[in-house]
Design brief:
mainly alpha; 424 residues; 1% strand; two-stranded antiparallel ribbon
Length: 424
């Protein structure tokens, strides 16, 4: 039977319109920041003037669709997620482009996409020279990208019912459902995300960081993005602030399902999670190795060696990007270890980047299974993850993802080398 490849255009228009509406509200918040700091509202006014009408038009022309009777197909959800990131990347570049800081179109797009994808790379050389309102937008793109604008939209799509969960699944990569209903799942994830952000802001304020800097750094930490409103990142802040950010980077790199379980007081269930145990164990062991190297070889005081080692390591593993030291100045074997730690990643269902600990764990379990099958050829040995058997299909997906990850990494590295960039 031949399947239709057509997309549900009406539904796509409606969801895209709502996404752009929410983005307009985020841009509006920056207008108030600009007014408070007595800065120009022009960059955000122009951006809203472009974004909001597009959203209104899309919502208007899709109003006749009977959404309650429509199921979201897999190809629709893939298309919506892909197009949403492209659109918000373009819209997000407008405030940079319209600002009076001479930021080119290419640089504006780079900064916007880096923000929304929580990559954390920046083309800006003097960050502190930018207006506070633009710096706030820069950090806000991180926060929006961390939770995923698709998850935010789920809270205003109750009529989508189970169909909306497909978007949530593509976007968040959560392997365990917090609740079967997409709206409830998105709302709970959002509350956890918001709670972590507010908690970090409070702890940073206790460290005498300004409210503006606390908000910006909390946005970047919980989203594991790494944008800082300071040229020196976290380097010039007190050890207390560095420890606070360190802890919240770990929390942001933890599966949000685990947070949900912990909030319900089910500590035994949470700490039976194999990925969580391996995630914390990797940080503990690698951090200990780097601490010992800095203390014994670089002759740093123990507390400083401990703090710098764990901060850089956690930042790299979670792909946050904050820094308190230049690890390229460390003994060579330490920065090589730091480099490989970048591929580990945080937990599945977190805002962290990288391959993710769960995939490494499944690969290790598959290797262990192969060795056992060599010893016992007739035995039927299943790969179990969190006490559940994984089929060949799940194993194949993990291997495919990791293979594609390294292929993309290799191709990207080669292309960057051809542009004249140093291999290191």
């Amino acid at each position: 039977m031949k399947r239709s490849l057509s997309l549900n255009i009406g539904l796509i228009k409606m969801i895209t319109g709502r996404i752009l509406s929410m983005l307009s509200i985020c841009l509006l918040s920056c207008v108030f920041i600009a007014i408070y700091f007595k800065e120009s509202i022009t960059p955000f006014f122009y951006s809203i003037a472009i974004c909001l009408p597009i959203a209104a038009i899309l919502l208007y022309i899709s109003r006749k669709n009977k959404i309650k009777q429509v199921r979201l197909k897999i190809k629709d959800s893939f298309f919506i997620v892909s197009m949403s990131w492209i659109l918000i990347g373009i819209i997000g570049a407008l405030p940079y482009l319209f600002s009076h800081n001479n930021i080119s179109l290419t640089d504006s797009l780079f900064e916007s996409i880096s923000g929304f994808t929580t990559t954390g790379s920046s083309i800006l050389t003097d960050i502190e020279a930018l207006p506070k309102s633009l710096l706030f937008w820069r950090s806000l793109t991180h926060w929006i990208g961390g939770i995923g604008i698709i998850v935010l939209v789920l809270m205003v799509l109750p009529e989508m019912q189970l169909g909306g969960y497909k978007i949530f699944n593509r976007e968040s990569s959560l392997q365990e459902r917090i609740t079967p209903k997409a709206k409830s799942a998105g709302f709970r994830v959002f509350l956890i995300y918001l709670g972590l952000t507010i908690a970090e802001i409070i702890f940073l304020l206790f460290g005498k960081m300004s409210l503006f800097d606390s908000v910006c750094h909390s946005f970047a930490t919980v989203a594991t993005g790494g944008f800082s409103p300071k040229n020196t990142s976290i380097t010039d802040y007190s050890p207390y602030i560095q420890y606070v950010i360190m802890v919240f980077m770990i929390l942001a790199g933890t599966n949000f399902t685990v947070h949900y379980i912990l909030l319900h007081g089910k500590f035994k269930k949470a700490f039976k999670n194999e990925e969580l145990k391996l995630y914390l164990l990797i940080i503990l062991i690698l951090g200990g190795i780097v601490t010992a190297g800095l203390y014994l070889k670089a002759h740093l005081p123990f507390e400083q060696a401990f703090r710098e080692a764990y901060f850089q390591l956690i930042s790299i593993i979670t792909c946050t990007g904050f820094a308190t030291a230049d690890y390229l100045q460390w003994p060579q074997y330490l920065w090589i270890l730091i480099f490989f730690a970048m591929f580990i990643g945080g937990s599945t269902g977190s805002t962290a980047g990288g391959i993710k600990v769960s995939r490494h764990l499944i690969i290790l379990k598959n290797i262990n299974r192969r060795f056992k099958q060599m010893l016992y050829p007739k035995a039927i040995i299943m790969v179990r993850y969190n006490n559940k058997s994984l089929g060949e299909n799940e194993n194949s997906k993990v291997m495919t993802f990791v293979s594609l990850y390294f292929i993309v990494f290799t191709i990207s590295t080669v292309l960057l080398v051809f542009t004249g960039m140093d291999i290191q």
